[in-house]
Description:
The protein has 17 helices and 20 strands. By secondary structure, it is α/β, with parallel strands linked by helices. The chain folds into 3 domains: 7-89, MurE/MurF, N-terminal domain (Udp-n-acetylmuramoylalanyl-d-glutamate--2,6- Diaminopimelate Ligase, Chain: A, domain 1, 3-Layer(aba) Sandwich); 106-315, Mur-like, catalytic domain (UDP-N-acetylmuramoyl-L-alanine:D-glutamate ligase, 3-Layer(aba) Sandwich); 324-458, Mur ligase, C-terminal domain (Protein-Tyrosine Phosphatase, Chain A), CATH 3.90.190.20. The protein has a 9-stranded mixed β-sheet, with helices on both faces. The protein has a 6-stranded mixed β-sheet with strand order 15-16-20-17-18-19, sandwiched between helices. Strands 1-5-4-3-2 form a 5-stranded mixed β-sheet, with helices on both faces. The chain is globular.
Amino acid sequence: MPFIWQGTDLLAATGGHPVGTIPDSVTGISTDSRKIKAGNLFVALRGERFDGHDYLHDARMAGAGAALIDDMYLKQNASHLPLPSVVVEDTLVAYGNLARYYRRCLSFSVAAITGSVGKSTTRRMVAHILQRAFRIHETKKNYNNLVGTPKTLLEANADTDIVVLEHGIDRPGEMLRLARISEPNVGIVVSVAPCHLERLGTLEGIATEKGMLLTEVQPNGWGIINLDSPFASYLQSLPPRCLCFSLQRHAPVQCIHVETDDLARAHFIVRDPHGTWSCNLSAPGAHLVTNALAAWCVGEIYGVPSEERSLALHEFQADWGRLRRRAGRNGSIVLDDVYNANPVAFRAAFDTLRRTSASRRIAVIGNMLELGPRSAEYHRLLGQDIPEYGIDYLFTLGDLALCVIDGAIEKGFPQNCAVSCISHEELVQRLLELIKPGDLILVKASRGMAFESVVERIIEFVDEID
């Protein structure tokens, strides 16, 4: 049975004041006027490219019973509001408050995951493990911000046991707001790495912001921390009791052996409080062991048997744009890793490229964005590592990616094997002229570089391969 919001609930949750008669049976909350159902509350959010207040009439025509609006709109339209309204100073803040109120009304637990690298993969692994014993609801796609987190919580229902959330940030203060909305029972910090430095400033600043998740873990809750992080000691000093994992150090959950096959799939042994367990990942990448250990810890806290955790990790498949193997043109194989990029993620992708059998290894690289004033340096340092990874050809697109070529050549990479392109079209054309059977092609860049268009042009019609 759906949760019924009374008018008093809406006012108590948001701290707003009513204009008109707020219904006593609001049946759901939506920020999209195109998806309104009869009796819903329409939340009018303001964004960089839209203003939800412009769609109040559409929401009324679709059957909305009331709206959440801000003071600014009320001042300009007090005499002709389309719907009975709850009026607040900031509808985004109020939307988060509605989700927190809802979260408190229901009995589900919340496991919230953050990290500069690997948070989405870890979230999916956690969901795979927990769904073997619980009814779960999880963050979809990239709904991990101040709009997506409330949306995810509000979509859970009374039958949900655990909500698995992903918290992503790119500026100071966001994590504290997200964590105060979600009020996690388990908080997981997978990694701290150079990412979103334009607004977060330094690695220390990133660690501080990520750590805010742990400060909001509920009483008797748990923090899960990667002991291999240089910020592990700081994170351990924060309030909740911790369960730690490691590939390098002694820890309650520890990887004691790892190897990869010729498809770069990891086979590893994990030791936990109950014994040692063999795990085989089906997705490529030795770096995924870190994500798997974090997910293993979540399973430990929620009491999922270790055997079930191992089976769940074996069944896990990577999401779109995250090192997915795809059949390429001319008999090649494409490693589609276009979802996003930063220096740590790039080196993990290079390592996967190196571990996978191939006639030739080709790296197709675009700009890494949002790295702040040291962006060019980060790209050059990445290039300096390329000769160590057995890469035969390097293709780049973007001004910053030129620095990757400079760094690679500085360390002895053959200049005639490095190709800088000025457009997606040139990049695709040059690749298609080169690739042949047995080639392995890594395609990776920040999301803003739109490298999915490159992948779509160089793959065959078969979407994936085993």
